[in-house]
Amino acid sequence: MQRFAGRIILLWGWRRALVAFAAGALAVLAQAPYDFFAVCFVSFPVLVWLLDGATGEASDGWFRRLRPAFATGWWFGFGYFLAGLWWIGQALLVEADSFAWALPFAVVGIPFALAFFYGFAAVVARLFWSSDIGRIAALAFGFGLTEWLRDFLFTGFPWNAVGYAAMPVPLLMQSVSVTGMIGMNALAVFVFSLPALVAARRHLRLGLALFVILVAGHVGFGYARLAAPVEPARSIDVRIVQPSVDLSEKWDASVRDRIFATLLGISGKAPEEGHAKPQLILWPETSVPFLFTERPDALTALGDMLADGQMLIAGVVREEGGSASAGSRYYNSVVAINDKGEIVDAVDKVHLVPFGEYLPFADLFQRFGIGQLVAGPMNFAAGNERHPISLPGGLRAAPFICYEVIFPDLVAVDAASSDVIVNVTNDAWFGDTPGPYQHFRQAQIRAVENGLPLLRAANNGISAIVDSRGRIIDALAVNARGAIDAHVPVSGRALLSPEQRRINGLLIMLLFALMAFTLNVRQRLRVN
């Protein structure tokens, strides 16, 4: 092992870049749908050894001394994000005649940009680097800080955060209810990197002890939390509809009636054997294929389909304005419709997807003929705020549209006063690729963090009902068409408040920073 580590440390130039790229790409196998987290016990020790050798000349300024570390982290990140996000390009092939030209920018450009975060993580780690377990703590702090920044910088895109690799099954998801994603990201990198100590054998016993304590605590807490009985205070009978509409027909006026009829047919069928009539029916994001303002007869049809006491929550495009003096504004929304066919509530999407739902710097891009790429025939406006929707039985649902559910803090704040989390999405843009599975995993973790059931409707999957511990009650596979009925128990709240989880996560991250700083200073004093 020492010889292998030594060869990694001595790599330079294109060989170092290639190994860093390969280590990052390999780490993606720990994410959904593969969930082979053991690869991280290879990828992160290799990154540690690469950073061991990423040093500049002593006579160089601090910028040039840190440049090799940044390059190493950047190549690791480029491999990680390229292998983990290549499926984004699938969305541009839905209308290939119009958008195939943008494929290289989506497939390569997004990973290229995101890799700067991991380059920054490597620089932060290298500032506190030492020759012992301190460097493992430094790397955990660097990645913990960077993954936190990814949550909100440049509108935020915390997709495939490293911490998800440590949570492939509900047994291993429960710790996030205490640490939050901030703490989980740092802890995951620390544990995954500990095998790097085997090569030098310094602090090996300490590293082994910490490994056993952290892994045993992670597993033990999960077992205890899943074994603890959950007393449902209330419940609701739910039907999740997955229509699996072909996106090539999505905005085709000639087939809108057929799409709407399919939704009505699936929603109005008799309950499955052993299930009660649903109180709530949930349709996916933008599932209604027209504007209700243009088709008021559709609301009449919905009122006829819904039985007494039933409610429909549907993803729609909502229009405002359209007067002679001002153009229309369109919102990606969910609406609640009662058994009389009346819209009783609406919530607009607040966190829009850049280039997908709106065009940043629109005037500049439109000069070059570049418009919105994938979401539909119009640009969307962002909603001002999110509020819970009142459900039958006195329950309250916090609605999140599409990728809004991947933001831990956003969900935590808006779900705090709710009883269930609702996520509607249309992942059909990405086909049967890793994208829908990764999206579902992140939604599943939000249920565990907040101690609330998750009701998820996706156009072509993965639609599911998940309990407050992250266990799947029922689900529909990608590209399946149909519905799932379930009796969903509703009980409890988050184990800790969002504020306490955030504090715990920051404390974990700062503990690693203190450990790294202390050992770095001690090494410097010993050398001098």
Which features characterize this protein?
528 residues, six-stranded mixed sheet, 12 strands, alpha/beta, Nitrilase/N-carbamoyl-D-aminoacid amidohydrolase
Overview of this protein structure:
The chain has 528 residues and is of the alpha/beta class. It folds into 2 domains: 2-227 and 500-527, no CATH class; 234-352 and 382-491, 4-Layer Sandwich (Nitrilase/N-carbamoyl-D-aminoacid amidohydrolase). The protein is built from 16 helices and 12 strands. Strands 5-4-3-2-1-12 form a 6-stranded mixed β-sheet. The chain has a 6-stranded mixed β-sheet with strand order 6-7-8-9-10-11, covered by helices on one side. Strand 9 (454-458) and strand 10 form a beta hairpin. The model has no long low-confidence stretch (mean pLDDT 91).
How many distinct folded domains? 2
Give the overall average pLDDT: 91
Radius of gyration: 25 Å
Are there runs of 5+ residues with pLDDT below 50, and where? none
**Content-based structural category:** alpha/beta
User: Could you give the count of β-strands?
Assistant: 12
Shape summary: globular
User: Based on the structure, what is the oligomeric state of the protein chains?
Assistant: single chain
SSE layout and pairings?
Blueprint: H1 2-9, H2 13-27, H3 40-52, H4 62-85, H5 96-99, H6 103-127, H7 133-150, H8 176-193, H9 197-200, H10 204-227, E1 234-242, H11 256-268, E2 280-282, H12 296-305, E3 311-321, E4 328-337, E5 343-348, H13 362-367, E6 389-390, E7 396-401, H14 408-415, E8 420-425, H15 434-450, E9 454-458, E10 463-466, E11 472-476, E12 482-490, H16 498-527
Parallel strand pairs: 1-2, 2-3, 7-8, 8-9
Antiparallel strand pairs: 1-12, 3-4, 4-5, 6-7, 9-10, 10-11
Helix pairs in contact: 1-3, 2-3, 2-4, 3-8, 4-6, 6-7, 7-8, 7-16, 8-15, 8-16
